[in-house]
Amino acid sequence: MSEERPINPRFDDDVMFRQVAPGPPRYATTTDKPVRYFEVADKESGVVLGYVWASDEDDAAAWEARKAAGPRALMESSIWFHRLESAKGRGISPSQALQELLTEHADGKFGRARPDSLREAPNAAVVKALAKGE
């Protein structure tokens, strides 16, 4: 064994990277500008599952699952996230998407948008903290 050889022969192979196409268009998921948001409540219990927020200033919008609502809030996440992604793909502003989700697409799998819960916050961090229970 006097001959030198690599520990793992695969390390001798050339490395090749493939560039993949970017994903679908998405709104930014944070902003320090003012946001508008509404609550999504459980259809059965009325417990708040999370919040949908938006801000036109930074082209930002997101769903924030409420930590205290547990697994139902996480399962609801994909529906609201997909709706926001779809809205961005259609080229509408975050505030238009928020209004559309509040009125036309108000029902999720477990939750329902509360039209009377539309509020304003100074930035996305406030809504995120609200979802965490801070």
Characterization of this structure:
The mean pLDDT is 89. The protein has one domain (31-132). The protein is an alpha+beta fold. Helix 1 (71-89) packs across helix 2. Helix content is 28%, strand content 21%.
Count of discrete domains: 1
Please state the oligomeric state of the protein chains shown. single chain
What is the C-alpha radius of gyration, as a whole number of Å?
A: 21 Å
| Helix-strand makeup class | alpha+beta
Residue windows where pLDDT falls under 50 for at least 5 positions:
none
Order of helices and strands: EEEHHEEH
Instruction: List how many beta strands DSSP finds.
Output: 5
Proportion of residues in helical segments? 25-40%
**Overall 3D geometry?**
elongated
Task: Compute the number of helices.
Answer: 3
Q: N- to C-terminal separation?
A: 63 Å
